[in-house]
Write a structure and sequence with these properties.
Residues 114-165 form the RNA polymerase sigma factor 70 region 4 type domain. Residues 80-103 are annotated as: Disordered. Pfam families: DUF6596, Sigma70_r2, Sigma70_r4_2. This is RNA polymerase sigma-70 factor (ECF subfamily). The model is unreliable at 1-5 and 91-107 (pLDDT under 50). It contains 20 helices and no strands. The N and C termini lie far apart (67 Å). The protein is elongated and about 75 Å long. The protein has 3 domains: 8-102; 104-228, no CATH class; 333-413, Tetratricopeptide repeat domain (Serine Threonine Protein Phosphatase 5, Tetratricopeptide repeat, Alpha Horseshoe), CATH 1.25.40. The chain is mainly α.
């Protein structure tokens, strides 16, 4: 146990918050069936730890201490809010049945919590916000900054979500086998959106890369992976995140400009993350099961990260992977990304013809105009390229991307 007033106590609380928050909230949500009670009691328990651990020392099992303390805080809240004998009896009954120390069984509780936060009855942005708060332990202020909204507005959104879960009697459980594939996809979509907002932030008022969000998305993906180890798409999403995150330090220059994949210093890529991502994909390949969307996206990134030099990139393999992806996800964005690879194989003129066919669905998407501008530049059509760059710059919100596009436009002369 850490001794009284040792500075390690504050670090221990921080570590415990990262490691134990989801365990504590999930355990309380299962016991009380109320996310409000679970969240507030957990927050009070951590606040108590901040006060007591520096003086009393860090307990040998922080998770058990926090769970027990949070349970007592929840009982106190029920008693304070209760005015009926029945509620008092319920509180006494619950108080007499305090939880044991966290065990592996609580893993199931965390999984139930994730599925509750990502229930299809909630809107996509609400699912993300609720997951970040209840499972990730981010503060309302941190989530509000991620969404570029006022803290009060985000607090109201999260409160309404918890109220809807309670009013609609959304069950706190893992979905049935029949519903699981669809529900898992919702969880993965929420985590992927969190990661993407960190990978390339959408707002001009935020840093271009939000490492705290990419790190949180990866942490939550690891959690889901530990609970659903046989699910190929869970492994695929984790691999995709790892292979993308591996390039983070090479993606933005010292002056704050985005660095295109082909121009990045590959020696700065994180080899450990790359090896882990490749290993996950090899393990999935060994199962013989057909890959899903996230596995194919990860495989495309694996081809990129396997090339020591951009000239060694296996573009034929990448186009083939995009062809398979298009069968699963025939979206215009997949077609746009495929066209970028086609340009490396068949030339910018062939790719431009494919891109121009996507104008109607992607007219408001900055990456469409940026891709088109680059192809026009490579073909020597400077006037048209400049107009496309202007449109891409007007639509882009990321400061690093805007700086990159502006420089490329100005190089046209």
């Amino acid at each position: 146990m850490t001794g009284p007033d040792q500075p390690g106590a504050a670090e221990a609380v921080t570590r415990a918050h990262r490691a134990e928050w989801a365990w504590v909230v999930a355990a309380l949500a299962r016991r009380f069936g109320d996310l409000d009670v679970a969240e507030e009691a957990a927050a009070e328990a951590f606040a108590t730890a901040v006060e007591r651990w520096p003086a009393d020392g860090v307990p040998p099992n922080p998770g058990a201490w926090l769970t027990t303390t949070a349970h007592r805080k929840a009982i106190d809240r029920i008693r304070r809010e209760s005015r009926r004998d029945e509620k008092h009896r319920e509180a006494r009954m619950l108080h007499d049945d305090e939880p044991a120390a966290p065990t592996g069984a609580i893993d199931d509780d965390r999984l139930r919590l994730i599925f509750t936060c990502c229930h299809p009855a909630l809107g996509p942005e609400t699912r993300i916000a609720l997951t970040l708060r209840m499972v990730g332990g981010l503060t309302v202020a941190e989530i509000a900054r991620a969404f570029l909204v006022r803290e009060t507005a985000m607090a109201q959104r999260i409160t309404r979500a918890k109220t809807k879960i309670k009013a609609a009697r959304i069950p706190y459980r893992v979905p049935s086998a029949a519903d699981l594939p669809e529900r898992v996809s919702g969880v993965l979509a929420a985590l992927y959106l969190i990661f993407n907002e960190g990978y390339l932030a959408t707002g001009p008022e935020t840093p271009p890369v939000r490492q705290e969000l990419t790190a949180e998305a990866i942490r939550l993906a690891r959690l889901v992976r530990s609970l659903l180890s046989a699910d190929g798409e869970v492994a695929g999403l984790l691999a995709l995140m790892l292979l993308t995150e591996a390039r983070r330090t090479a993606r933005v220059s010292a002056s704050g400009e985005l660095i295109a994949l082909g121009e990045q210093d590959r020696g700065a890529w994180d080899t450990e993350l790359i090896e882990e991502g490749h290993r996950l994909l090899v393990e999935r390949l060994a199962t013989g099961q057909p890959p899903g969307r996230y596995q194919l996206l990860a495989a495309i990134n694996a081809v990129h990260t396997a090339a020591r030099d951009v000239r060694d990139t296996g573009w034929t393999q990448i186009v083939a992977l995009y062809d398979r992806l298009a069968h699963l996800d025939p979206s215009p964005i997949v077609a746009l990304n495929r066209a970028v690879a086609v340009a490396e194989l068949d030339g910018p003129d062939v790719a431009l013809a494919a891109v121009d066919r996507l104008e109607e669905p992607l007219a408001g998407y900055h990456a469409f105009h940026a891709t088109r501008a680059d192809l026009l530049r490579r073909l020597g059509w400077s006037t048209d390229a400049r107009a496309a760059y202007d449109r891409a710059i007007a639509l882009a919100g990321n400061t690093a991307e805007t700086a990159y596009l502006t420089r490329r436009r100005d190089q046209l002369g």
